Structures
1.
Amino acid sequence: MSNVRRIFVIGAGTMGHGIAEVAALRGLNVTLYDVKQEFLDGAMSKIKWSLDRLAEKGTIKSSSEVIQRIATTLDLESGASDADFVIEAAPERMEIKRDIFSRLDRSARPEAVLATNTSSLPITEVSESVSAPRRGRVIGMHFFNPPVIMQLVEVVKGKYTSDETVKATYELAGALGKQPVLVRVDVPGFIVNRVMARFLNTACLMAERGLHRMEEIDAAVRYGLGMPMGAFELSDYIGIDVLDDIIKAMIARGFSMTPCGLYSGMRSAGKLGVKSGQGFYAHP
Ligand code: CAA
């Protein structure tokens, strides 16, 4: 049983808006923060779209009942001040996370858990941007896209994370209807991304080297491994920029792999996958 009643979600992008939706679906009050009103407006439309799908299927009565539990703000300090649990889902850059966590250190309640949804950056490094007494309250809480559908939450213990914080995060994941898995060692990419980055990168290298066409690799993955999406479909879904950041962050911290050259070229050309309308495939 989780004691959390009010969640503050930082970042209204793909993951942040999905996490806010999951929390509101489970009856929690949520405040969603981003730096521009247009990001918050875009997030609220996506949440409404998703809730409408659930309402059509009869999973919920109406989207408006859930949406009313989500407030939005452009003020990080006031959003943090009354939250029991904070989940940061900002872009995957350490300097951004450090800035956010040092601001949370000054504005969040002392007992609030400060979680990061980072997919590849070390929790210990993030927690070093808060003052020593608070470091035990910093933890990784890594959701998967789309959060409303994917069951897993990786709960990542950093060097300073207290057992009490792990317990509170497990309880919250359970209250959100998710399956938590403990990541005991704070290694780059945790569990899933260490497996997935190598898998997607290998598929990409095969196409880059002209060994197979991406459509053939995707069909083989779908029908041979029973995955819901092929490797290139999944890369587009995750976002080429996100994937590129994950792979770079893992390599920078000693993970050994040869990155597929197509990612950085696609990134500079703005071919980011589903969100930009073009990635490996076209997404009209
Ligand atoms: N909200 C509500 N409903 C949604 C939804 C959303 N955001 N997304 C999909 N759905 C619903 C659809 O409406 C549809 O419902 P019906 O069956 O009733 O029509 C159903 O889910 C299936 O969706 P689609 O028909 O559009 O497509 P699909 O069958 O391919 O399912 C998918 C979509 C659930 C995303 C599925 O393809 C899938 O599971 N893909 C793999 C996703 C994955 O691996 N995610 C992890 C990525 S890694 C990550 O996130 C971590 C990281 O650090 C990068």
2.
Amino acid sequence: LRKEADAIEDPAAAAARGEFARDLQAALAKRPRQLSPKYFYDAAGSALFDRICELPEYYLTRCELGLLSAHAPEIAEHMGAEAEIIEFGAGSLAKIRLLLDALQGPGRYLPIDISGEHLAAAARRLQQDYPQLQIQPVVADYTKGLRLPPRLHRGTRRIGFFPGSTIGNLRPDEALRFLKQAAALLRGGALLLGADLIKAPAVLHAAYNDAQGVTAAFNLNLLVRANRELGTDFDPSGFAHSAFYNAGQQRIEMHLMSLRKQEVGVCGRRYEFVEGETLHTENSYKFTIDSLHELATHAGLRRGPVWTDKHRRFGLLWLDA
Ligand code: AVI
């Protein structure tokens, strides 16, 4: 059955699976063991992330939605009419709705996401609610060289939207590369960037160690996904979710920690985990407004207005490209 399914798998899915297998093997072969967080987002992982956004401890989404709805008219004014909006890592397309409600008919909306099924379903729902809007979903890994369809009209302003502090999941060198790429793609327009700010470690810790265990399920789903897609034999009950604030690096680290000595098979190779050994699955960097401006300036973006909540938990930055 597996062979038959492989035979009819579309080439893009097969290539993605091959990349996942190679990256997982490379991650397990080195020390410390670390894998890109992009592998969290299969359909189940994307649904779990949507649940994380609703958790009482996970203030990021609520804060950002609050900022977007409070300042949407002002943001819309900066965007101007007829601009096209390009959202990087668009997920379930909830945040853009706040801007769309304030904008008078953007030219076009291009949501970019790595999870094709999730994006297609979200785009269909959005289209139902905004029938006049031209939506053109792009399934791509926006951290790699990105090619976009040509501008709608010559001179159409492109506004990038990179919310959710997803920038924090990139390594600092990747974040800089991404911003440089965004500056080039958006030249003449701007980037609206949402980022989580440094705060009391206890608040950060709670956001990634929720009482309902949704973040733990999100982290462990990586192993379930590997078993399903790659035929690995991870025992998810043999691993525990571990998340903590690394103050020196100004980041939350998420790991999957082996609860015992065990061996795992990945595409014909076996890898040993000793008790307590981890697979580092995600970094979530936290910033200051100054550190974000410094990064953006380095990438060739120019600082514009900043919106933040009264506790300065989250920042929304306008950066001219
Ligand atoms: C998508 N990203 C910004 C989330 C974050 O907070 O770093 C992913 C996440 N990981 C655990 N909880 C949420």
